[in-house]
Amino acid sequence: MAGNKKTGGLAGVSAGETAICTVGKEGAGLTYRGYDIYDLADNAGFEEVAYLLMHDKLPNRSELDAFITRLKTLRGLPDQVKQVLEMIPADSHPMDVLRSGVSILGNIEPEGDFKNQGHVADRLLACLPSMLLYWHCFHTDGKRIDVETDDDSVSGHFLDMLHDKAPSELHRKTLDTTLILYAEHEFNASTFAARVITGTLSDFHSAVVGAIGALRGPLHGGANEAAMELIKKYSSPEEATDGVLAMLERKEKIMGFGHRVYTTSDPRNAVNKKMSKALSDEAGDTQLYVVSEAVEKVMWDEKKLFANADFFAASVYHFMGIPTYLFTPIFVCSRITGWAAHIMEQRADNRLIRPAADYIGPGLQAWVPIDERG
Ligand SMILES: CC(C)(COP(=O)(O)OP(=O)(O)OC[C@H]1O[C@@H](n2cnc3c(N)ncnc32)[C@H](O)[C@@H]1OP(=O)(O)O)[C@@H](O)C(=O)NCCC(=O)NCCS
């Protein structure tokens, strides 16, 4: 069975070539198309990074302006999509909402010829936040919100729809930076799922639907929500330390820690941690940040496990007033760029992805008629 101890979940196995991203070179680094994640987080906007991933170059000023304008024109949702979103139960998980939203959009605006892939990528990047917040606002406030806001950025669009007002620049920029950090990560589980689906020559929407399904689990994107559930349980660093020690004693996993590829640290954590501290100070928080630090310390002291991108992302999103169940969907709104880049790269030099398995079942069995079976 794939993922058992013998095959080790394909750990360390190269499953193909990519020119998009490096992860964990020397245990810690992350680059997108050759650019260091710290340079991108410090200097770029999310749309610039999206363009870099999907077009294989940084945009010049006029290319970026045109891209931003284009994304703004693609935010609207067809009525049929809105109807489906309204029918999805209020207690559904928003990852399931996005999975269904992309699927219905694929029926209404099918990709058709692969030459349309660039348009589909832009369309999904522009309208995933619209789907998410349309559903959220409809089911929480009973409001049919206008998803075509005038904000220039994906982060501004998201926060504007969520809070029904333009965000502060600190919050917009912070969300923008988390989108940059989440945008791409080589052959992670959801991207690999997208590439496997793409490898059959299936359509763009199917690949993204599969990727969303893979991202949903707590061992992958779902970890940011699980991290939030953990830190909000504790009211002091001491309580957090004791609680995590008890969980480790019970051999429970602490979500938001560890990584398959990084061995010494996750470079995205330093950026998230700094933003979490800034927002904690802004909010006058005396609990969540120090609790998070205590969990980070005990995990390192006890297990030499470091916080990954999801751990401090949890408090960052919480401080911006984002409900926990929207954390993993935000990851989708960002990672769509990496998935799109990989779908296009896979198609450019496609071969069906179909690995072999080591059979560990019984030898050849004699057929037993149904009435003679015990
Ligand atoms: C990311 C992750 C799935 C990588 O998994 P992996 O490479 O298959 O490593 P394993 O799950 O086999 O872990 C190896 C060992 O470290 C331990 N470990 C790894 N992550 C751990 C965590 N977050 N908490 C406690 N123990 C952990 C495992 O229990 C295992 O111990 P063992 O050898 O005594 O059985 C894993 O670290 C994890 O589950 N982390 C929590 C979920 C998470 O944050 N996911 C987001 C990743 S960006």
Radius of gyration: 22 Å
Mean pLDDT: 96
Q: What ligands can be seen in this structure?
A: coenzyme A
Q: Would you give the CATH topology of the domain at 223-319? A: Cytochrome p450-Terp, domain 2
User: How would you classify the helix and strand content by structural class?
Assistant: mainly alpha
CATH architecture tag of the domain at 223-319: Orthogonal Bundle
Q: What is the chains' assembly state?
A: single chain
Helicity level, as a percent range? Answer: 55-70%
Largest sheet: 3 strands, antiparallel
**Inertia-based shape:** globular
Q: Can you identify the CATH class of the domain at 223-319?
A: Mainly Alpha
pLDDT < 50 stretches? none
Specify the CATH homologous superfamily of the domain at 223-319. Answer: Cytochrome P450-Terp, domain 2
Q: How many β-strand stretches? A: 3
What does this structure look like?
The chain has 374 residues and is mainly α. It has a domain at 223-319: Orthogonal Bundle (Cytochrome p450-Terp, domain 2). The protein has 16 helices and three strands. The chain has a three-stranded antiparallel sheet with strand order 1-2-3. Helix 6 runs antiparallel to helix 16 (327-348). The radius of gyration is 22 Å and the shape is globular. The mean pLDDT is 96. Coenzyme A binds at residues 9, 11, 219-220, 223, 253-260, 303, 305, 308-310.
